[in-house]
Design brief:
CATH class of the largest domain: Mainly Beta
Number of domains: 4
Shape: globular
Length: 903
Amino acid sequence: MALRASDRLGVYEIGSLLGAGGMGEVYRARDTTLGRDVALKILPASFTNDPERVARFRREAQVLASLNHPHVAQIHGLEEANSTQFLVLELVDGESLDKRIAGGPIPIDEALGIAKQIAEALEAAHEKGIIHRDLKPANIALTKDGQVKVLDFGLAKATDSTAGTALEVTNSPTITTPAMMTGVGVILGTAAYMSPEQAKGRLADKRSDVWAFGCILFEMVTGRRAFDGDDMSDVLATVLKTDPDWNALPVDAPSTLRTIIRRCLAKDRQVRIPDLSVVRFILNEQLSATDTAAPPAHVAQASRRWKWMATAACGVAVATLVGAYLMRPTASLAVARFFVLAPDKTVFIAAQRPVASAAISPDGRMLAFTARDTAGRTLLWVRRIDALMAQPLNGTDGAAFPFWSLDSRSIGFVAAAKLMKIAVAGGPPMAIATRIPIPSRGGTWSRDGSIVFSAGGGMFQVSAAGGEPTPLPNVRGSFQGGTYPSFLPDGRHLLYYQAGSAQGSGIVVASIDGGGPTRVVAADSTGIYDARTGRLLFARQGTLMAQAFNVKTFTLENEPVPIAERVEAGGLSGFPSFSVSDTGVLAYGTGGGTASALQLVWIDRQGKAVGTVGPPGNYRGIDISPDGGRVAAYQYDGQGGDIWIMDVLRGATSRFTFDASQLNSSPVWSPDGTQIAYGSLRAGKWAIYRKASNGARDEERLFELDVPVLPDSWSSDGRFIVFSSGDVRAYADLWALPLTGDRKPVPILRAPFQESHAQVSPDAKWVAYQSNETGRMEIYARPFPSGAGKWQLSTNGGSWPRWRRDSREVFYMATSGISGTGISGGKLMSVDVNIKGSTFEVGSPHELCDTGYINLPSTGRYHTFAVSPDGQRFLIPRPQSTAVVEASPPIVVVLNWASGLAK
């Protein structure tokens, strides 16, 4: 309803109109009872005429009234007068941030002061479970005394969309186009700050506010929007598909500012900065410790030397505090935490996944992690927790899964199919065990000087001085066996993670002397026992839990207590991104638990992108139909996954399997395109199934084993499905499954190495595959299904072979060493072959292009790329953003973490 000056609503006398939008009109008014000026927001009639909506809004207003913060404009009440519902709000006397920006870019020092106050307001709201959902410069006011006030908290959350609309108001509050809602007008301001998940109509959470914060910070220092367009569809397209113009950032913008903006604007919220407390912490280091308000303009334009002095002083203060903290008696300690960011121009990495591997030393004084730089080089880094910088350890190229010796002097890790160790004080790394089965998943140091490590689906024990590993036959499982082991205090029992068992994934305990295994608890990670508190730490659905654990009976007691949220736990099955020292220091990586979303991109032989297929997803294995018209893709969900089919021409995507818990993966097309074979893990059993590609018939189980079996290819004559299977001794062997007769598998190659990714040639007479028989993964070819002879196709490492349809060319990815988890730079290689009868001639391999797939996740035995039938295009899963350093949430270090248990 339109109001005029001097109109009254109850005790409120209307003054002037302050603004209007999709959520209603805002008026300046005088509270005649209390004698103060307030702001009245008149709710639209479509809201006030709906009793259910008003009731919900009232409940939300009651929650918001509990939010009391100096940088949040207060809600005084929700009232009704003259049949009109309205909100009574604090009147902020000042200029809105959008008007301030309209005058040009804000000086960096002033912008950082404003951003700090915005972050503090949002952090306070998030702690109470309140999400703004409509944060934008128009909803931020700057008072005359330099204070920031965030307006309209919770209004978006408090409303619903009408049934049947394309986009819920609860997710995108003030977009009011007829196409999206039932209102009128287009409010581009909201769309420009809308997170990708909101633009897709998905539920918003506090990471959506983090995105909007990044948009505002970008706009403050550049004077232009991060995402803009001529109409709403253009704006939303830029939000979903493009990055801001990073070159628009001021040339003198500090790297800290650039990092904050980039990480706030990660499109995948799983890898976005998870909490604005992280931003506030960084800004506190960038700004003076006593500066709690945005400085006046004339101060902001002064020399910036104070900023660098303040930053250095702040860093020294933090280091001094931590050092003093460690020297104090344990009983007097309180909980304290700080954040560790990835070193400059690097990203935290674990086995080629952008997740943090946080390993705290037993004495609690050093943090070890692996990080990758922009050149694709992964190193082991160590940072003293009372220092400002981390230091790389030379000679640790390709390092993964670091673990400490009990004296905190050495670190064990896996690299290039070797178990290694390196002294923290300096010196070259030493090989403890070579040619270990892969994949390898972590290790643990015992008190007697031996090491137990996971490799190839089982556990092995070896002297820390080096020697021949001895398998522990009782410590294994049906999928990846036992992974990420951790010794209990007696030095004879191990905790480890087991996936894919009949009871589901979780933590088990077993003795290295032969007892067990015994299941402990269902979890998403392995467990680590903290002897100081007698508790077992483990992750479940992104929350780090602590629960009393009896080390004699191996049973849990009492109830689990959550001790940290947003813990990275799903990037690798069972992976522990957390560790705890003997002195009460806890470290954990933050994030979403999954890798960045990937887009299936067509590239030509020169590496130029020429199209895309399907929506973004966490793709692990893809295969193209023989006619090139459809793509079958396995999407991983952190623990399992399903297969989807995408029509290349029509752009349609449909689900092919329907139970992600079964781990339906590794799709392979039949030669006529009417069927798809795939692997599946169900109730601890692995099997190969086939099903009509149009979904018209039920699936058929073809073959079943206790160890992993995954189809690799289907022979062109339709007679065989080639698959790889694994056990502890020989992780992967090659087999041919006849589709007629007794269907008894025929061995193609059995050897004490890893052979996998077998691809039958189009003429069905040869098979190309990868093997680590030389100490690193290479590509070979041999007669199919049997016959004498073997030809090496690659010369400097290779994985994932694919044939051209005429059998005259083989493509593969160049690999770095034998990490078994990924590639270096995603370089696509080609080698010409000339087949004449039983003669197989091989040309020299040559590089075609860099595929751009630098963020490659660990793909196991799933094919990472596919080739068009004519061999001229390649379908590559690429990260949606090619910037390596954008998506690395921090590691959190908590001193004396157990003191918070009682709280």
